[in-house]
Each structure stands twice: as structure tokens, then as C-alpha cells.
Amino acid sequence: MELPELGTNLLQHVPPRWISVAERYLKRVPVLRERLAKETDTMLAGLEGDLKPYRGQVPTHAQLPAQGLPREQVLREMGVMETREHERWKEGFVSGAVYHGDSEHIDFLNQVYALNSQSNPLHADLWPSATKFEAEVVAMTANMLGAAEANAGRPPEAHVCGSLSSGGTESILLAMKTYRDQAREERGITRPEMVAPASAHPAFEKAAHYFGIHMVRVPVGPDYRADVDAMRKAINRNTIVVIGSAPSFPHGVIDPIEQLSELARERGIGFHTDACLGGFVLPWARKLGYPVPDFDFRLPGVTSMSADTHKFGYAAKGTSVVLYRGSALRSHQYFTSTEWSGGIYFSPTFAGSRPGALIAAAWASLVSTGEAGYLESTRRILETADVLKRGIRAIPELYVLGEPLFVIAFGARGLDIYQVMERMGAKGWNLNGLHKPAAVHLCVTLRHTQPGVAERFLEDLKGAVEYVRAHPSDKGTMAPVYGLAATVPFRGLVSDLLKKYMDLISKV
């Protein structure tokens, strides 16, 4: 599935609308359609073994057993899989994904979950503990992100407030839906737009897709941060919100939030800081003396934020916080139904029933860690990240993108960085592939602060670079997929491939 280099270069100068029309036409040609299907199926067939490693090793359950299995057998089957999987993340071979991972911390959260396994904040009268935990998690997160300064001298209804969601994506979806509804009600905007740097998380694109918002993606500057002048030019009368990241997921750099939020404030529109990744790191990094620019509610133009408790907040997977400057803005997030025959109904987020046990685990993680715990964890993470950045920069073929703190993106000169990623995968490392430009990143967590992990990563990375330099024709399994996504101008072809990949994941 390769285009000639000349054709690819020429297509880079063709308007996207024309490319889209050409792609639709080409996909209707039977011979080409069949060839594309064959090549993508071949590519995915090479991945199936990696995605379905338990076939033939543990029983497959495609339908309900006639009689329920003994609980001991169920636990035994699950234990086989858990043992194999935890070995990689436990030893720090994974970028992000598991942010704490200490056995005592996990056992503690599991006990909290067990105590609250039946609770559901939808029924606040039955489980007032769940709403207590949620309100306090939101308040603690808000105060960590500048709420005290923002609230000073303002009435309670103007104080920073928020909700707990199922993760960063839902927090972002909720915020974008909120701005859409606010703009429609208060400004009469029926064709809403959001302005975001190209590095903004795909959750914003998903929100645009779901809620009928036109997303204007603005190229980032040479430092991989949002370009303030370009963002200013992209704002128009239909803009409802401007986006910035602290830091961005791909490159780990902090956008110029102060300048961007002022652009929004001057225009009377919203500004959202996506701190899903950095919300529980940057406040402590600043206290430790690292150069962290203002990014939170201390800036008057910031009107909403997202911060993930289940990342560096060290909670169990499935919680995030979305925050707003004032309850009037948050009210546009809510859903109410007053005419249903089943009675009045209301919910603050997309879900109706929500797992109170996860809310309790988030609360327990925050209060048991405390400021001292977050400071110490952040110190260890940033010191390890400094070691890794120095080591990567010492490899002549590699370079670090921008000036990151703890999410380290690096590219390559004179060799294929995706092949380096593939080789690192063969050594057990699970890294994130990036493109535009082609790069790889490692999100440093507490797992990487264990003795010897950073040194092992750098040694394996040197070996991977040497191997790829000596074997440039090796393709592997995932490297061609990333290479395709980075070079093929027909985005629909890549989208079709990803949809087939998701189909493959869902197979029994």
C-alpha cells in the first residue's frame, strides 16, 4: 500500500477537499478496492497473534456456559492472564498506562473498592457517601489548580466547581458540550467552532464529531507549542472555545496558556486547559522549582479545565475531573427530564448510573497521598525524566522534540524511528508512536523511577538504534502501520485500516 514518492509529494500541495473527492472515486474502482482490502487484511493478519495471545491457552467463552463455572475456576483463568500482563508494566516497560503500580497502593484501592462496590451516586439518598466523595475530589482538585486565588472576593456561584467523569475523554466531551449549549442559549450560535492546536488530544475531535462543532486545527510552532498568532487568526464570530494543553499528549510541552486564554477572554469566549496529563504533576513541579508557566484558574481567561485523577492522581482507572469557573457555566453540562412518566430524572454527566466504588477510590487515593506524597512522587518522576532526556540526547541519531518535563518525545536522523520503536517492542518496551513529525514518546511514571529502569531503557535504546542502522530493511508488524499513517495523504484509507483494527480487537 505504497504510493510513489513523487505522487505523495505532489498530493501534499493538493487541497484536502480535492483529495477527499479523489479518494472516494478511487475506492469505487473494484480492482483498487480489492487490492486495498487484501493489503490491509494481510497487514492486520500479522497483528492478530499479538492481539489474541490467549487463544488455545485459556478457555474461550463465546456463549454462556450451560452451568455457571465454579468461582475458583473463574479466578484461576483470570489469574493466568493477569500474571502474564502485570510483568511488563510492573517492571516499568510501559509508557504511561500504569502511573503508580505499587502493590501496597493497589491493595489499598482494592479494599476501598470492595467497601463501596454497590454504591451508585445516581441514588444519592441511598449512598450519600458517594456524593460526599465526589464533591471533595472535585474541591481538592480545584484548589490544587488555583481555585483559591480565583474564588477570592467572588460570590459562591462564581467559584470554581465541577464534576467527576469516567476519564479524560469524557471530561473533554462534557466541557465541549457545555460550551456548545452555552453559546447557543446565550449568543444564538448555531454553527459553533472550536479552535485548537494540531497537538490537542483527539477527544476534542471526538467532541466535535458528536456535538456538531466545527474543529479548526491550527499547526503548532517549531517548538511544538500552540502558535498564538495563528490561533488568533483562526478565531471568528462562531468560535465558542479555544483550547490549550498542559502539557500536550504527543510532545509533552505546555502551550502558551496565558496568551491563549487572554485571546479568548478579550473576545468573550471560553478557554479550556486540557491538563488531563499534567494536572497532578505541574502544580507540584512548580513547588519543586521547575519552570512551569501559569496554566490554571490563576489566569482569569481560563474558564474550564480537565485533570485526570486516574493518571498522576494515582486513582483506579475510570475517573477524571472537569472544572468550570462558576456554576452558571457548569449548568449547561447538566441533563434534566421533567416530563417522563417514570418521574423526574437528572444526571450531571453522560452516564446515569456511575460506579461509586471508583469515586471512593479516587477520594481515597487523594487523601492518602496528600501534598507531601504528590511532591515526592513528582520529584522522583522529574529527576528520572532528566536522566532519560540526557541519555536520549547523547545518542547521535536521536533528538528530543521541544522542551518537555516528563513526557519525552524523540525522533531520529537518518533512520526510521518506527523501526526503532519496533525493536524496542521486541525487547519488551511498550512505547507510543507519534507522527507529524514521526517520533516516539515515553511518558515517565513512578514505574520508571525504580532502580535501574532508566538505565535499562537507555541501554536498550542504544542497542535498538544500532540494530536499525545495521538492518534498515526490517519492517516488523506495527512499523508499517505507523509509516502508512504518516505518509499516505488519503486519510480515509488510514481510517478504514483503524476501523478494521478495532474489528479485530473485538473478535473472540
TrEMBL record:
<feature type="modified residue" description="N6-(pyridoxal phosphate)lysine">
    <location>
        <position position="311"/>
    </location>
</feature>
<protein>
    <submittedName>
        <fullName>Sphingosine-1-phosphate lyase (SP-lyase)</fullName>
    </submittedName>
</protein>
<keyword id="KW-0443">Lipid metabolism</keyword>
<comment type="pathway">
    <text>Sphingolipid metabolism.</text>
</comment>
<dbReference type="GO" id="GO:0019752">
    <property type="term" value="P:carboxylic acid metabolic process"/>
</dbReference>
<keyword id="KW-0456">Lyase</keyword>
<dbReference type="GO" id="GO:0030170">
    <property type="term" value="F:pyridoxal phosphate binding"/>
</dbReference>
<dbReference type="Pfam" id="PF00282">
    <property type="entry name" value="Pyridoxal_deC"/>
</dbReference>
<keyword id="KW-0663">Pyridoxal phosphate</keyword>
<dbReference type="GO" id="GO:0016020">
    <property type="term" value="C:membrane"/>
</dbReference>
<dbReference type="InterPro" id="IPR050477">
    <property type="entry name" value="GrpII_AminoAcid_Decarb"/>
</dbReference>
<keyword id="KW-0256">Endoplasmic reticulum</keyword>
<comment type="similarity">
    <text>Belongs to the group II decarboxylase family. Sphingosine-1-phosphate lyase subfamily.</text>
</comment>
<dbReference type="GO" id="GO:0030149">
    <property type="term" value="P:sphingolipid catabolic process"/>
</dbReference>
<keyword id="KW-0472">Membrane</keyword>
<keyword id="KW-1133">Transmembrane helix</keyword>
<dbReference type="InterPro" id="IPR002129">
    <property type="entry name" value="PyrdxlP-dep_de-COase"/>
</dbReference>
<keyword id="KW-0746">Sphingolipid metabolism</keyword>
<dbReference type="InterPro" id="IPR015422">
    <property type="entry name" value="PyrdxlP-dep_Trfase_small"/>
</dbReference>
<dbReference type="InterPro" id="IPR015424">
    <property type="entry name" value="PyrdxlP-dep_Trfase"/>
</dbReference>
<comment type="pathway">
    <text>Lipid metabolism; sphingolipid metabolism.</text>
</comment>
<keyword id="KW-0812">Transmembrane</keyword>
<dbReference type="GO" id="GO:0008117">
    <property type="term" value="F:sphinganine-1-phosphate aldolase activity"/>
</dbReference>
<dbReference type="InterPro" id="IPR015421">
    <property type="entry name" value="PyrdxlP-dep_Trfase_major"/>
</dbReference>
